Amino acid sequence: MKMKPASINRIALVVVLTGLLRPALAQQTYSFTAQQAVEYALKNSVNVQNALKDVEIQLQTNREITAAAYPQVSGSINVTDYLKLPTQLIPAEFFGGQPGTFQAVRFGTKYNGTYGATLNQVLFDGQVFVGLQARAASIEYAEKNVAVTKEQIKANVYKIYYQLVVGKKQIALLDANIARAEKLLHDTKALYENGFQEKLDVDKVTVTLSNLRTQKAKVENQLSTGYVGLKYLMGMPVKYQLSLSDTLSESFLRDNVLADSVRFDDRQEYQYLKAVEKLNTYNIKRYKYTYIPTVSLTGSYNRMAQRQKFDFFKGGEPWYPTAYIGLQINVPIFDGFAKDARVRSAKLELQKTQNNIEGLKNQINNEVEQSRINIRTALITMDEQTKNMQLAEAVYNQTKIKYEQGLGSNLEITNADTDMREAQTNYFNALYDAIIARIDYLKAIGKL
To answer: Are 263 and 341 contained in the same domain?
Structure first.
């Protein structure tokens, strides 16, 4: 069959479009605000997912604890083939023999079969009942562990996210510096060609421009590494493209700063330790209940058959039933003080947890005060560096105008450029310090 040219062209177009679309489909692109980045991380982070799995595991553990309070029913089937029947010694005088002597007699049949079911129901067991009471506390403990993990992820994502935002601002400023240096190099070369500047002046500006380009390449490399680290922290495949849509303003850094009160219950770590304390209390109660007797109901129903031939499935042959119901009470009397040791150990664990709670309170107070000091200092430093950077840029621009008018030297403009770039670097350091201080403060008061 010969294909028409139009059909061939359509097939070729589909092949080409498929080849073009495949890379686009293989690589996904995301544009996230800081909040969206945090939400993505909380859904996809391996640490968060594992913490959530711990909650599911605890739910299954609770099911196992609950099962101990339900009736335990089991069935059994037993078939025995006596290759040699058991032998019993019977006093010989029963058969007319001499008193004091015994006669060996074999009882039973070659095949014995039994099937039936047994029941065991706990009526009272202190450990089981405490386990039932502690189920909600166990779930709370697992959920608080999830909350602590999420809090750590949030803080780290925010820090890296805004570090990258600062890096983007630094790149924009470096681009402006490079543009200024390129224009200065162009003007200096023109002055040199007309005999108003020396070759050394051209070389100095060339070195400055090269240093700026090197600095930009270094910052871009740091940004690339930061993006990889952020995607890893978020649980995002590294091959995906990520862009940041949030900007950073000084008003954002000052918003609601130092206005909130401190409550220990706002900290996830504090709630986590309180859940541990509750479980420690249940543990003590559980071990104390081991001094109390346990009571359970037992029952059994079985049917037994005895055969000389293996004909258990033959109808009409007799099966002999047996059944019983009973009450079992286990009374602990002496175990070498093992129960006392368990109770004492559980009490010590509770004391350790209480010590950790007090230690955490002190830690929270310390973190809050330290972060307050840091954020005040960071904001003051940022304000000063902002003014300093603006002043340095104004000095550079004025020096450049004088240089272009022939009233200033190359040394003056080189010094002004150095001072401006140093002021810019100090500003970005202060800006990042303010971001870290704000995140640490919000985390310290439990409002991140």
So the answer is: yes
> For 317-359, how does the pLDDT look when each residue is reduced to its tens digit (9 = 90+)?
889 999 999 999 999 999 899 999 999 999 999 999 999 999 9
Strand pairing of 241-244 and 29-32?
parallel
Let me know whether 33 and 164 are in one domain. yes
Two structure tokens written together for 35: 């909040």
Residues 392 and 407 in one domain: yes
Task: Name the residue with tokens 């009490």.
Answer: 347
Tell me: do 232 and 147 sit in the same domain. Answer: yes
The alpha carbon of 75 is separated from its chain's Cα centroid by a whole number of angstroms, namely 44
The range of the structural domain enclosing residue 116 comes to 75-93+100-123+304-331
Amino acid identity at 82: Y
Whose tokens are 């089937």? That residue is 77
Q: What is the pLDDT of residue 287?
A: 93
pLDDT at 256: 64
Q: Tokens 């700026």 belong to which residue?
A: 212
Q: Is residue 299 part of a domain?
A: no
Residue 215 placed within a domain: yes
Shared-domain flag, residues 149 and 166:
yes
Is residue 432 a contact partner of residue 363, using CB atoms and an 8 Å limit?
no
CA distance 159 to 161: 6
Q: Count Cβ neighbours within 10 Å for each residue of 21-58 and write b for 16 or more, e otherwise.
A: eeeeeeeeebebebeebbebbbeebeebeebbeeeeeb
Task: Enumerate residues 6+ apart whose C-beta is below 8 A from 155.
Answer: 439, 440, 443, 448
pLDDT in tens, 273-314: 999 999 999 999 999 999 999 999 999 999 999 888 888 888
